[in-house]
Amino acid sequence: MQDKIQQLRKQLIKKAKKQVQVRYAESDVHIIRAVSLLQDLDAGFNLLAENCIEWYSAHFPELHNIVKDNETYLKLVQELGDRANFTEKNAAEIIKERERRKRVLDAAKKSMGSEIQKDVLEAIKMLSKNALSLKKERLLLESLIGKQMQGYAPNTAGLAGPILGARLIAAASGLKQLAMMPASTIQLLGAEKALFRHIRDRKIKGPKYGHIYGHALVKKQPAKHKGKVARSLAGKLSIAARADYFHGENISEKLKQELEERAKQLD
Amino acid sequence: MEEIFPNVFSERKELFTKNLVPGTSVYGEKLLDHEGIELRQWDQYRSKLAAAIKNGLSELPIKPGSVVLYLGAAEGTTISHVSDIVGGKGIVIGVDISERVMRKFIMVCEQRKNIVPILADANRPWTYRDYFAGGQISVLYQDVSQKNQAQIFLKNSEYFLKKGGYGMLAIKAKSISQEKPVNDIFESETAKLNEQFNVLQKINLKPFEKDHEMVFCRKKE
Ligand SMILES: C[S@@+](CC[C@H](N)C(=O)[O-])C[C@H]1O[C@@H](n2cnc3c(N)ncnc32)[C@H](O)[C@@H]1O
Fold first, then answer.
1. Are residue A12 and residue A60 in the same domain, yes or no?
2. Within 6 Å (CB) of ligand 1, which residues are found?
3. In which residues is S-adenosyl-L-methionine bound (chain B) (predicted)?
4. Is the complex ipTM more than 0.90?
């Protein structure tokens, strides 16, 4: 009796292992990891960038007023460092606009910032380097997601764009789940927080759309049409996800056209 | 230290089970020696079964030698203690739907010869019925935090639990409704069990778990 049970137990452990293995060989597992990492990388980048700006401003406080783009700012810190290095030749590569460049160089000359010790500057440069390498990783991930989505969920990617498509798959916890969802649920994916707030307190308005709100065509609509286009997009996405899951043909172009038609009709 | 149920020990505020695999801790819990037997600490904040015992469970249907079907195995935290209790002569079949938790759970199963993993949806008991001849289960334990938890429980009981067998169902009120008063939810969920079960005891898991109740019941003959 015990022998038989042990035999069955070993067999079932093997089977469960196999099932886990199969699941983790599927692309959506990696797509979900990558797209959720994207958000953490952005958060990490912003945090490091803020620290860097705050610190470097001791030396060159005017710079942040003129260069608002964090990536450009960090490059200047990393490659030029000391204010004395802010010359036309050094800055030309990094700040492309002439007008802005001129303002930066002027400000560098007249800066109220204090002198900075070499080893302190080195620490700040290291910070900017780390922040920039997170940006690099982000680019890499974006292209990875693009490729994976193209292979795994071409219809969803085609209609929603690879990143938004990946967000939807992640919010549904998998392509299979996304494919099984009614359009009304897809429409709200990513809006869970707002939905729960509404359920707890009915005076707070319920959300109309989640991640799909970020779709270019929805964004573009005037407020009164947003809901209709979002609903239509959710419906098409549900068709796209099903086509992807069941390995149907590529119909994303057709779906996209239909969606655009729908948006036009509203005007 | 006092043995309050077979293989379950209690000292001051803490619970312990007798370690089936001496020397190994499953999820970082404390091990200690008590008169030559090794005990594993059982944290009532991490395990609803421990919380139910703390809050006065009258009888523990999981005993040495029991055959337990455990739905919602997760990473195997509670199940490892169930495995301690049923000991070498008992067996625990753990079902979970998520591959993510199954990775860890399988490792627990490999260490403990009385646990069997099944990756399946507890809504569909027929997908795993072939692994045990019907009617052999002596205890059905369920903790899945799903909206239709009572239905899942009844379905599995129909398939596997022997008449006169025991059931333990952890009800998470918030899985059922975000708005209804918690006590109404417990009431209506428990009522659903009446067709198959006699409810023996209902235990609120406060303060260890918020808005949870453990229903202890026995299948009608
Ligand atoms: C609250 S956790 C259980 C914790 C566990 N009982 C413990 O104390 O160690 C709930 C588990 O139920 C699983 N679950 C949810 N729905 C399920 C279903 N339909 N079938 C099987 N397992 C399910 C989840 O994957 C999750 O691991």
1. yes
2. B 47-48, 71-72, 74, 77-78, 95-98, 101, 121-123, 143-146
3. 77-78, 96-97, 121-122, 143-146
4. no
